């Protein structure tokens, strides 16, 4: 049972990091044009 | 003190001499290819592994691969630690680690932290040490270097949407950099007397003829020791780490151990200079790191020398005080240098007990970690951590003169600044909230073995060490509890991967920017002026963020000393 909990915690941690990738992706989206000025 | 300065000079000279050749060896890896002399073999390895090195990835795909690779590493290591009791190569018959400790240890080794809430020789089998921990030592070090190389490419490339292939990078860094050096390094350690055996222990007879109680732990130490230092991992085979004669047998191995902690991180600055076709840029970063390193060694050593005098009225001689917590085979100079190097980098190996350092001397390794371990730093992590400070320094300088900040032909736009700010804020948030939560809860406070200011220092040190992926400890803190195993696990994970994702995003945005030729108003990012400015920014940011915590811990302890 505790093993399941530990694995779940790690999966949540990882999901949050993947969320960061998406958030940065949104932050940088549409910036190509600005960078090329 | 004179011996410390002599050792520091020799160490810095040897490090400077190694920076260029090792940096040149890494250069082709940064360019996305294997060194020319091994290109044919490399091509064969890539074919064998079905890796297409020329199929490069965007920053987001690269980040996803980094995360996926390390999550698999976590599950693999967690399974080994939990199934240890039924796995082979377990001569001492150790049982499984508890779930929370296995979680903490797996996160710790995957994130290059190597925080250890267990004693290796009394907990882990040779199989767990070799197949579990040593493998992650290589892979986590390679992950850090790979991210640093991507950041370099982001700065060196213009209008580029791709920044390299993670799988090719991770294989090449292991096969062409870490493994060859570690092979020679391990053999040299064995030559000097480090243990390397599949036995768990040996029994020796005392002079009386009895063997009762004379059990000496051993195991495959040398092979793990090499990558432990070179990869700035720091997780010792034995509980006392590099104080143990089987891990660190002689003065010569001690010197090479501290040198090997810094060598790749120092070399990466030269690689960067070559990649952006201006080696002065790399050397400027190198010297900024050296200035902070020298300052740290001198302060730590001076306060350790001073410490003995505070207790003279209690009948303790200064020399006795200096040796408290030290391994007797090494002098104060060797211990001081080791303590600074291991915390300036994200290594965390120790050859003396940091909990026994005098208050201000103990604050030095603590502060080095809190600054983000950018003084040469962990392999790769030191370079990309310093790049955050460089972006901030360039931005601040740009504000001063009223120009858009530029770095090596790249305009530093708002999105780059936002990402750099997030990267810089991750670890302070983890450390300060973690410390506050620990001292507000009974479970957090109950692990403190020294009440008062030193107890707070133990807690600050633990969170600083975890969030910055160092792994050393003020070992008086009893950290094998649910609170610290899981809480520090969280700090290690986000201290590593939240920062890595931010840096890869930063590399992505810089890589897509077009080249802006320097003009007369462009800030020169090489030379003494920028070097000094960069050091100032690092120290100022660190001081502003952590001074209250440091004041309540080590500084409060210092002013409470009997003879202050």
Description:
The complex is a heterodimer of chains A (37) and B (564). Chain A is mainly α and 37 residues long. In chain A, 84% of the residues lie in helices and 0% in strands. Chain A has helices at 2-28, 32-35. Chain A is rod-shaped and about 40 Å long. Chain A starts with a helix and ends with a helix. The model of chain A is unreliable at 32-37 (pLDDT under 50). With 564 residues, chain B is mainly α. Chain B has 19 helices and 4 strands. Chain B has helices at residues 2-30, 39-48, 59-82, 99-110, 120-123, 126-156, 166-192, 221-230, 251-275, 279-310, 318-322, 332-344, 359-370, 381-401, 414-440, 442-445, 453-467, 482-512, 528-559; strands spanning 201-203, 215-217, 406-407, 410-411. In chain B, helix 4 (99-110) packs parallel to helix 18 (482-512), helix 6 (126-156) packs parallel to helix 14 (381-401) and helix 13 (359-370) packs parallel to helix 17. The longest helix of chain B has 32 residues, at 279-310. The model of chain B has no long low-confidence stretch (mean pLDDT 90). Chains A and B meet through helix 1 and helix 2 of A and helix 3, helix 4, helix 15 and helix 18 of B.
Secondary structure blueprint with pairings:
The complex is a heterodimer of chains A (37) and B (564).
Chain A lengths: L1 H27 L3 H4 L2
Chain B lengths: L1 H29 L8 H10 L10 H24 L16 H12 L9 H4 L2 H31 L9 H27 L8 E3 L11 E3 L3 H10 L20 H25 L3 H32 L7 H5 L9 H13 L14 H12 L10 H21 L4 E2 L2 E2 L2 H27 L1 H4 L7 H15 L14 H31 L15 H32 L5
Antiparallel strand pairs in B: 1-2, 3-4
Helix pairs in contact in B: 1-7, 1-9, 1-10, 1-12, 3-4, 3-6, 3-18, 4-18, 6-7, 6-8, 6-14, 6-18, 7-8, 9-10, 9-12, 10-12, 10-13, 10-19, 12-13, 13-17, 13-19, 14-15, 14-19, 15-17, 15-18, 17-18, 17-19
Question: How would you concisely characterize the structure shown here?
Answer:
The complex is a heterodimer of chains A (37) and B (564). With 37 residues, chain A is mainly α.
């Amino acid at each position: 049972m505790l093993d399941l909990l530990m694995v779940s915690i790690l999966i949540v941690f990882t999901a949050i990091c993947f969320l960061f990738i998406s958030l940065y992706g949104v932050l940088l989206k549409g910036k190509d044009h600005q960078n090329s000025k | 003190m004179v011996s410390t300065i002599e050792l520091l000079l020799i160490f810095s000279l040897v490090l400077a001499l190694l920076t260029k050749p090792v940096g040149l060896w890494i250069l082709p890896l940064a360019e996305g290819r294997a060194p020319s002399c091994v290109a044919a073999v490399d091509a064969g390895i890539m074919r064998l592994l079905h890796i297409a090195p020329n199929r490069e990835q965007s920053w987001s795909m690269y980040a996803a691969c980094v995360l996926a690779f390390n999550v698999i590493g976590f599950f693999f290591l967690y399974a080994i630690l939990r199934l240890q009791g039924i796995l082979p190569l377990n001569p001492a018959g150790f049982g499984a680690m508890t779930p929370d400790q296995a979680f903490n240890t797996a996160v710790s080794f995957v994130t290059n932290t190597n925080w250890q809430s267990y004693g290796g020789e009394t907990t882990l089998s040779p199989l767990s040490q070799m197949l579990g921990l040593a493998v992650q030592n290589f892979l986590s070090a390679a992950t850090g270097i790979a991210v640093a190389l991507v950041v370099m490419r982001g700065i060196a490339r213009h209008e580029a949407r791709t920044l390299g292939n993670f799988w090719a990078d991770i294989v090449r860094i292991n096969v062409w950099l870490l493994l060859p050096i570690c092979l020679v390094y391990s053999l040299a350690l064995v030559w000097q007397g480090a243990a390397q055996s599949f036995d768990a222990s040996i029994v020796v007879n005392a002079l009386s003829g009895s063997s009762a109680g004379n059990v000496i732990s051993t195991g495959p130490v040398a092979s793990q020791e090499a990558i432990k230092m070179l990869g700035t991992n720091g997780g010792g085979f034995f509980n006392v780490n590099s104080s143990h004669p089987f891990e660190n047998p002689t003065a010569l191995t001690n010197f090479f151990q501290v040198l090997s902690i810094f060598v790749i991180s120092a070399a990466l600055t030269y690689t960067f200079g070559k990649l952006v076709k201006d080696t002065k840029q790399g050397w400027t970063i190198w010297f900024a790191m050296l200035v902070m390193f020298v300052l740290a060694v001198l302060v730590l050593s001076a306060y350790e020398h001073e410490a003995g005098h505070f207790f003279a009225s209690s009948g303790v001689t200064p020399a006795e005080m200096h040796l408290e917590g030290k391994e007797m085979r090494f002098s104060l100079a060797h211990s001081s240098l080791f303590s600074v190097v291991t915390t300036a980098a994200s290594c965390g190996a120790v050859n003396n007990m940091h909990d026994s350092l005098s208050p201000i001397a103990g604050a030095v390794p603590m502060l080095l970690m809190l600054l983000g371990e950018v003084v040469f730093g962990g392999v790769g992590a030191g370079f990309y951590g310093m790049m955050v400070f460089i972006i901030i320094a360039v931005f601040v300088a740009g504000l001063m003169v009223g120009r858009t900040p530029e770095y090596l032909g790249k305009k530093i736009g708002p999105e780059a600044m936002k990402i750099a700010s997030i990267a810089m804020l991750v670890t302070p948030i983890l450390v300060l909230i973690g410390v506050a939560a620990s001292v507000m809860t009974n479970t957090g406070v109950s692990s403190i073995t020294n009440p008062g200011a030193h107890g707070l220092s133990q807690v600050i040190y633990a969170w600083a060490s975890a969030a910055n992926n160092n792994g050393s400890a003020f070992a008086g803190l009893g950290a094998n509890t649910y609170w610290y195993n899981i809480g520090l696990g969280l700090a290690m994970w986000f201290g590593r991967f939240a920062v890595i994702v931010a840096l890869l995003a930063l590399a992505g945005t810089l890589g897509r920017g077009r080249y802006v030729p320097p003009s007369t108003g462009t800030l020169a990012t090489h030379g003494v002026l920028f070097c000094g400015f960069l050091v100032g920014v690092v120290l100022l940011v660190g001081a502003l963020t952590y001074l209250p915590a440091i004041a309540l811990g080590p500084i409060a302890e210092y002013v409470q000393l009997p003879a202050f």
